[in-house]
Design a protein that fits this description.
The protein has one domain: NAD(P)-binding Rossmann-like Domain (Rossmann fold, 3-Layer(aba) Sandwich). A 7-stranded parallel sheet has the order 3-2-1-4-5-6-7, with helices on both faces. It is built from 8 helices and 7 strands, in the order E-H-E-H-E-H-E-H-E-H-E-H-H-E-H. Strand 4, helix 4 and strand 5 form a beta-alpha-beta unit. It is of the alpha/beta class.
Amino acid sequence: MEFHKKTAIVTGAGQGIGFEICRSLAKEGAKLILNDVDRELADKAAALINEECAASCFAVAGDAGDIKVIHKLVDEAVSTFRQLDLVIANAGITLFGDFLSYSPEAFLKVMQVNLGGSFFLAQAAANQMIKQKSGGSILLMSSVTGHQAHKNLAAYGMSKAALEMLAKNLVIELSEYQITVNAIAPGATLTERTLQDPAYMKTWSRITPMGRPANIRDITDTALFLVSEKARHITGQTIIVDGGWTVVSPPPDEK
């Protein structure tokens, strides 16, 4: 029960990677504020975790890029559990589009959720952790698209690269308060969304050196390590979890 004295916020956690991170933290004793933009998904996810893990998991629905929702998440953690120790800014959106015709509306939405949501959640959480004087851990969710170019993902890729720079910059801002800030850059990962593509598994197994795309546990295990006491002297770093894909980087449409 490694996290039994910890309270965590996880955004974008109604399904997929975020949900599995929440469930894994709950199994290790953490108290949780589970966020998703979809209220029904958030409520079902929290109920499932509470039933399966006998946990204290509360759902707070809302857009993780909305500053009001961000402050609500932190306020709920403090009012319900009296503290905030871990924050995982997992929420993000992918809006594909050709660079030459990409709309301002799509660009600003990607930046609002992926960058603004992560930046201001980290800010609100850090202020609470500083007030508590007990340190903490913040984890940002980047992507291999922040390292290697993908067609039709210029805006998304730049938002993910920026998150890795944010993790580095916050070392300067937050280390004196014993707050670590790191990032994960997942590669192709099997989730409810990606499995809707019948060719996804075959394609990414072919072009990934380890012979398969990541599964949710691959990302979750890395996340739990980075917010644990085992990683207490690791900060400002990004761990790429992609089975070696960024080393060779063949595009998924390569024959």
